[in-house]
Design goal:
globular, 8 strands, alpha/beta, 29% helix
Length: 197
């Protein structure tokens, strides 16, 4: 008798389940960024304030603060590439890529995320200005404005940019090209950090 009552109580919920939708149709695949240089397993860096650099979460313009790939159609018109969806916001993915690239290229300890255990004097933050496809030039474009705070009141800024030609404005071409351009910019940033600029 009790099992019959439980099933009767669940019946309306089961019927509603067929009528409810918890989001749009999932894309066939999601885009992500993959570092071309990675620190091997078991490798580490000495933990000291002088060797540590903290990456503050990167910002981005409103146009790319989404999981879609923007397409610059004209100087004043923006669209989004069909079927191209990032697994996370580009600024977050790019921050993880930069952190791994700095680790592998410089051997420095990189503190990314909220880690109060290490007080790094050297801090890197900035804004992702472009991260998409430019239909006018048929290139993907990645532009990052970096700000670096060192000891005392020392602050330096630099703009980094990379463009990669794309055969066609399709996800299969744009995704890998954006990964290549993002790795190029991350490498430029790591070289800048490694020079102690």
């Amino acid at each position: 008798m009790k099992s019959t009552i439980k099933l009767a109580a669940l019946a309306p919920a089961l019927l509603l389940g067929g009528c409810l939708s918890f989001g749009g149709e999932a894309p066939d695949s999601l885009l992500t960024l993959t570092p071309t240089a990675m620190v091997p397993a078991g490798a580490g860096a000495p933990m000291s304030q002088s060797n540590a650099i903290a990456l503050v979460e990167f910002g981005s313009t409103k146009a790319i603060d989404v999981t879609r790939v923007p397409v610059q159609v004209t100087d004043t018109e923006l669209a989004y590439l069909q079927d191209a969806v990032w697994v996370d916001r580009p600024a977050r993915l790019f921050g993880q890529l930069v952190a791994e690239t700095i680790r592998s290229r410089t051997g420095r300890m990189v503190v990314d995320g909220d880690d109060p255990g290490v007080g790094a004097i050297d801090r890197l933050h900035g804004t992702l200005r472009s991260f998409g496809y430019d239909a006018r030039s048929r290139d993907v474009v990645v532009v990052f404005d970096a700000v670096r705070n060192g000891s005392g009141s020392n602050v330096t800024t630099r703009r980094f940019e990379s463009r990669v030609p794309v055969a066609a404005p399709e996800t299969a071409f744009v995704g890998p090209a954006l990964n290549q351009a993002a790795n190029d910019v991350a490498g430029q940033i790591a070289d800048w950090v490694g020079q102690g600029a």
